[in-house]
C-alpha cells in the first residue's frame, strides 16, 4: 500500500505544508493551482476569493490555507479570513488566539487593526472568525460585512475566505456573492458527483463566479 505522504506530517506542519515543506510535491501542486488562478484573472483582477466545497471535511480549510501561503510567498499582500463562523479552523492552523476576530470587528467590539494577526510568512495576515455568534448568516449578510470588504479590498492585494460547505450552510452563498471569485474543492473519496453538480448549480444561482475546481486527495 502506498501511504499518502500528507498523513505522515505533524498536524500544524500539515496544514501549512506550503510553508514548512515548500519543495514537496504537494506544495508544488498548490503553486500550480495558484498559477491557474492567476491565468483565470488575466483580464479581470480577482481581489477576493472564496474557497468552499459541497460538504464537510473535504479539505476547504487546508486548501485555502495553503493557497494563502503560496500567494504570500510570491510576494502578494494577502489577508486570509475565517468566514466559517460555525466551525472555524484557521486559528488552529496558525496557532492563534480566536478571542477577537471577524465577528467582533463586525459588531463593533474590536478595532480591525487589533484583530488582524501578521504572520512570519511574507505579507500574509490573518483575520480569525472571532467569537462564534448565534446568528452567523445575519452577520455575514450585514451591511457591516459589505463595508468591511470594501475597506479590505483597498488594503490587500488579495483576500481569501475559508467558509462552510455550500450545500449545508447559507452563509457561503451570501459570501460567494460578495467575492470576486469562487474555488470549489471536490474530494476524491468523499464528494459524490451529484453533490458536486448541485454545489455548482447553487453557486451559479448565487451569481458567483466559479473560477475552477480543486480535486483534493486524489490518489
Ligand atoms: N489532500 C489531503 N490529504 C490528506 N489529508 C487531507 C487532505 N486535505 C485535507 N486533509 C485532512 O482532512 C481533514 C479535513 O480537512 P479540512 O479541515 O481542510 O476540511 P474542511 O472541508 O475545511 O472541513 P470542514 O467542513 O469541517 O470545515 C483534516 O484533518 C485535513 O488535515
Ligand atoms: Mg473547514
Would you give an account of this structure?
- With 219 residues, the chain is of the alpha/beta class.
- It has a single domain (30-216), classed as 3-Layer(aba) Sandwich (Rossmann fold).
- 42% of the residues lie in helices and 17% in strands.
- It is built from 11 helices and 7 strands.
- The protein has helices at 11-15, 17-20, 25-40, 60-73, 90-93, 102-106, 112-115, 136-140, 143-155, 170-178, 193-205, and strands at residues 48-52, 77-82, 117-118, 123-127, 158-162, 181-187, 210-216.
- It has a 7-stranded mixed sheet, sandwiched between helices.
- Strand 6, helix 11 (193-205) and strand 7 (210-216) form a beta-alpha-beta unit.
- Helix 3 (25-40) packs across helix 4 (60-73).
- The longest helix has 16 residues, at 25-40.
- The radius of gyration is 16 Å and the shape is globular.
- Residues 1-5 have low confidence and may be disordered.
- The structure holds adenosine-5'-triphosphate and magnesium ion.
- Residues 60-61, 84, 89, 162 line the site of magnesium ion.
- It comes from Metabacillus hrfriensis.
- Keywords: Kinase, Transferase.
